[in-house]
Fold this sequence. Notes:
Layout lengths: L10 H5 L4 H14 L5 E2 L11 H12 L12 H15 L8 E4 L2 H12 L5 E6 L3 H9 L3 E6 L10 H7 L4 E7 L11 H11 L6 E5 L24 E6 L12 E4 L2 H14 L5 H12 L3 H22 L14 E2 L10 E2 L2 E2 L3 H12 L1 E2 L1 E2 L9 E4 L4 H16 L3
Parallel strand pairs: 1-12, 3-4, 3-5, 5-6, 6-7
Antiparallel strand pairs: 2-8, 7-8, 9-14, 10-11, 13-14
Helix pairs in contact: 3-10, 4-10, 5-6, 5-9, 7-8, 11-13, 12-13
Amino acid sequence: MAMVSTEILSQTVLQMEESATLKMARIARELADQGHEVISLSLGEPDFDTPDHIKEAAKQALDDGYTKYTPVPGLPELRKAIVNKFKRDNDLTFDMSQIVVSTGAKQSLANICMAMLNPGDEVILFAPYWVSYHAIVCMNGAIPVPVAAGIDQDYKVTGEQVAAAITERTKLIIFSSPCNPSGSVYTQEELEDIAEAVAPHEQVYIVSDEIYEYINFTGKHVSIGTIPSIKDRTITVNGFAKGYAMTGWRLGYIGAPTVIAEACAKIQGQFTSGANAFAQKAATHALEADMSPTHAMRDAFEKRRQVIIDGLEGIPGMKVNRPQGAFYIFPDVTSYYGKKSGDFEINSDDDVCEYLLQKAYVATVSGGAFGTPGCIRISYAASEETLKEAIERIKDALALLA
């Protein structure tokens, strides 16, 4: 077969970067296929299985004939359960017309951006940000405007920073709490500070990604959409992947102003239509059933967080904070810049990740992919034994640098 030139491809895909997290996972698999014992701490995927009662609900749904197309915005029973969940857990009030269920929270975010952004619009991204925010914004012809907070700010942007970044072209602000990749969790006071900065700008809407809501070690999750001054301009994104260990089920959802929800459903109707039928039935059960398996997973992640913090703090040069949610830690690794081991010289966070993968066979992700060069993201969604082994490998590899 003749080779096809990349000239046939669109500028959109040619300018798009491969997801850094998926790239590192791919390279780790390739090394494993070559016989190396790779520890992959690059993907944001719980290592737990989906709780049995959720799987049983899916099996029952199959037996009950839930194998057909579903309404584009989601099964009525699931949207009703989401309305109840928002009220119960978040003190957010929606009706069913404001809920859209999608094939993962990533599609929810893409729907929102396609529904709202025009070329030249500006979108403020709190950096560090999840890698796909930047790519999705660019795909829609809009301009990402990163607003950065380093480790000394616990990776949390202030209202003052937001106010300084807003222009007449600002359309959206996108952030996550608990945050991927930093694990930082915004408090009520911090969110009120941000809301105060946004409130006077009526053209600016907030997209609050709360997919890690249930993996929160503070004892309280706060939704920015509860703040009166900006509640009508907040779109809340959530899903089932993280809190219920349902990554492969591909289900996310939004609660949004009606006109935005209807626009998202219109777009989705031309791309994928309704999400998986029997998975939606299982998700309905997940929202309404016992949450103790989710709480047990959260408690396990909290123990693992301590293992990873203790281990990294014992490595000279690692600058570590104490993330309050999700299952990531985001250490500053700039102290290794300029150091060498053999022919390998460290000059960037990418170099650190490559060095750890090639020397220690531990896969991480560079902070630059998340808009924050100088850091690396380490997922602790792995067993305590695996994490301890990874830390020893990292420590030994970094000790060779001089």
